[in-house]
Design brief:
The structure is a homodimer of 342-residue chains. By secondary structure, the first copy, chain A, is α/β, with parallel strands linked by helices. In chain A, 47% of the residues lie in helices and 12% in strands.
Chain lengths: 342, 342
């Protein structure tokens, strides 16, 4: 049914004629075409909540960069908002929550959502699917519970998330209650995405790296497991940024794919994650280099991952100031590469 | 000569009667006594440049917390300043450089320093040594070349240091020239610290974690090695925050001690760093917990590291909002613990 299903076949562990490629934040500021839509929409959250705008920028990188998958343009923080914690995007600061969770009383003011408050995402998915016309798979996504918890407790981005971590130590019961509410909401929300037509789900645990291995098992992996166990009809990817220490634990989950950041050695990760297809892991800063270096290091990465079980991507989202032509060179290099030819 | 030389004996690999303990950022805002001096001095940089203030706050944690070592109150960014790049500490933002390094012309405007511009640190060390009266060892320190490079190119703190990393890709020759200038200055500077009386040197590679393993070897380890090879009269510690991937490389350096952050599994680190004494690695957020949890998890850490080859510390600096009494409980727990008794 899909004209290009390389990503899905690779995610399911099948051998494919070449390595599929897409980019985290491919629908983003690196494309002048995205910036034009954003100016027209009036802002980031306005784009997220408007299915026409969201569908348009979701499809842009498929057309402009030639990637093998689209990922629905949205934000992980729509889940806290659906649960009763709205947020704003503040220029040069990022997300900011007026209300945060610190006590049982705060918890009583939020609720488990069935996803109905986030219907605009399902609408954007349905419209994108129609306009994509089966060209490539559409990826849906959600934040992992720990990462959403971190924002809901801290109230904003942080280098250390020390306030969020403090709650794990001072009131683990409350922390588990909140994590369970986030998990239940996320499962319901992902099911609305699947029903609307996404072909694969990626969980982003963006702040995995601030936890100790013991805390990560208790406060993150346990909840990711509930989600990957609950999503059985489409393949799933877990990207736990910075959680090098959790690779053996991630290998035991029922997800199909694990994302790697650029810190993680490829050969070592192939051993620790032997059950999983791997996604990643070029340094986004590689795309600042000259063309010869981009091609050479991208080909080295493809060689190191090998001919199967790999989805090419960066180890993090694209940085907004990268040049579109260099981003496209990365995509083109992956698409031109044939394993065994070098 | 020192009344308490536990830290030095442990750093040299000798067995000791108990595990020594000190804390990164122990001379800092967690102590009300420090905040009083800072208010009196007028600011952070003013304290750094005034030997009386610096000596006073250096000794405070020895008296107040009972730690087994003092660490000279200073800042890693005095080295860029000595080379010709002055900086300011901006409230809620951190360090900020008016001029940064981007081109060969920028490099021509700075110089390798012999440490004479930073004589106030040697003066603070001499005064601290006198006032400490041989109570405990005094630790000197410097930033690792990559971390100083990151600030000198980026101009301020950053989550990604993408501008600094960009230079590694776009002009590696210039990057190596700057790293060599920083390294030469750092060796001269550390020698002034040793001459003034410090008993051990710690190198802080605070931004190690943003590099790929390959880049870390090329742009950081090579320069750390020059420094640890040049410092032969006192023991040396390397703390490369986030460089989990570099543990096997760090094990080959001539340093005595390697610092671990709280992400790094203790048992695994003991294998990867078999030649080294290890320092760390409690999560600073543990000190937000109740007293029973602090004692229990600190004792677990001590048990896991074992009776020798370990210097107790956190895996990062103290956070300013921690309670002094809980910080002291961590120190007291280490000092009361006897291996084999539990």
């Amino acid at each position: 049914m899909l004209k290009n299903d390389l990503l899905l076949r690779t995610a399911r562990g099948e051998s494919t004629e070449r390595t599929p490629v897409w980019l985290m934040r491919q629908a983003g500021r690196v494309l002048p075409e995205y910036r034009a839509v954003r100016m027209n929409a009036g802002g980031f959250i306005e784009m997220v909540k408007n299915p026409e705008f969201a569908a348009e920028v979701t499809i842009q990188p498929v057309t402009i960069l030639g990637v093998d998958a689209a990922i629905i343009f949205s934000d992980i923080l729509v889940v806290p908002e659906a649960m009763g914690l709205p947020y704003k995007m503040v220029e040069a600061m990022g997300p900011w929550f007026e209300h945060t969770i610190a006590t049982e009383a705060d918890l009583a003011r939020i609720h488990v959502s069935d996803g109905s408050e986030i219907k605009y995402v399902a609408d954007a998915i349905a419209l994108t699917k129609k306009n994509l016309d089966h060209a490539v798979p559409l990826i849906g996504f959600a934040g992992a519970p720990w990462t959403l918890f971190a924002y809901m407790v801290e109230g904003k981005g942080s280098k250390t998330f020390s306030k969020a971590k403090q709650l794990l130590y001072t009131n683990p019961t409350l922390a588990h209650q909140l994590l369970q509410m986030i998990t239940d909401t996320t499962i319901a929300y992902i099911k609305t995405q699947v029903a609307a037509g996404v072909n694969l789900i990626q969980l982003f645990d963006s702040w995995a790296g601030v936890l100790s291995p013991m805390q990560y098992n208790e406060f993150s992996i346990e909840y990711i497991k509930q989600i990957t166990d609950a999503i059985t009809t489409v393949p799933t990817t877990v990207f736990a940024k910075g959680a090098f220490f959790a690779r053996a634990s991630l290998n035991k989950l029922s997800c199909n794919v694990v994302g790697l950041d650029w810190n993680m050695d490829i050969a070592e990760s192939k051993v620790l994650l032997a059950n999983k297809v791997l996604q990643g892991n070029a340094d986004p800063c590689l795309l600042y280099a000259d063309e010869a270096t981009i091609v050479q290091q991208t080909e080295k990465m493809l060689h190191d991952f090998g001919p199967s079980g790999h989805i090419a991507n960066l180890g993090h989202g694209l940085y907004p100031d990268l040049e579109k032509s260099k981003v496209k060179l990365f995509v083109d290099t992956v698409k031109a590469y044939r394993h065994g030819s070098k």
